[in-house]
Specification:
Length: 234
């Protein structure tokens, strides 16, 4: 397999620390719960026992949820260290999940190989908008007609004070999906108040912040910091 042209930052110790640094504090757990709720909503539209692919599976947060729900799962990631963490979490059942090293815009799978493909917390990290949109097209390429694709992305229309992460508009993601034969099932959002609101909220106020964020996110999904588009392939 060729070396990924978009390198991962999550190697060695950084891969080991990924979950602990992000998802073990009260704020981190609330953020993870918000993401998980949208992922589970998409899984609810997928037939039982379907064949799934996660692109950018990381430490397996979402992949293990799908596996435990009885889906036939495969995962791809550019970090061998992340893949080893997934195998460790699976333990004796590691042989039941196929994991591959690779990159998201050049998926090493045949057309229509899966019933459902998805990518979460990845498109904003790939360095270039054109690469992120190429990933959208390839996620659709490897799903069968009638299959589903879940695409999560950082919203261009939100104020941004950080590093060089890729931000896309809902319109350009949906237009790119349409060129690959995809049509929108639903578009939802999360973190309408921003993730920073979670991290800065005192512990006693965190449930109120989370509830307010969920309500606002349902009302204005296209203005959320993170958008989730569930696409059906024609």
């Amino acid at each position: 397999m060729t070396t990924p042209s978009v390198p991962t930052a999550y190697r060695d110790q950084r891969a080991q620390e990924y979950d602990d640094r992000r998802f073990t504090s009260p704020a981190g757990l609330a953020i993870a719960a918000a993401e998980s709720a949208l992922f589970r909503a998409a899984l609810g539209a997928v037939p039982a026992g379907a064949h799934l692919l996660e692109v950018g599976c990381g430490t397996g947060r979402f992949l293990l949820t799908a596996f435990e729900a009885g889906f036939r799962c495969e995962g791809l990631d550019p970090s061998p260290d992340m893949l080893e963490l997934v195998r460790g979490k699976l333990g004796k059942r590691a042989t039941e999940v196929t994991l591959r090293l690779g990159e998201g815009a050049q998926l090493p799978y045949t057309d229509g190989a899966f019933d459902f493909t998805y990518s979460i917390r990845v498109l904003n990290q790939v360095g270039r908008a054109d690469y992120a949109l190429a990933m959208v097209r390839d996620l659709l390429r490897v799903v069968r007609p009638g299959g589903l694709v879940l695409i999560e992305f950082a919203n261009r229309w939100r104020p941004h004070r950080g590093g060089p992460d890729v931000r896309l508009s809902p319109a350009e993601v949906l237009a790119t999906a349409a060129t690959a034969g995809g049509r929108l099932r639903w578009l939802r959002g999360t973190f309408a108040l921003g993730m920073t609101a979670y991290w800065r909220a005192p512990g006693a106020l965190l449930p109120m912040v989370s509830a307010a964020d969920r309500a606002l996110s349902r009302a204005v999904p296209r203005l959320c910091a993170r958008c989730y588009a569930l696409i059906e392939k024609a």
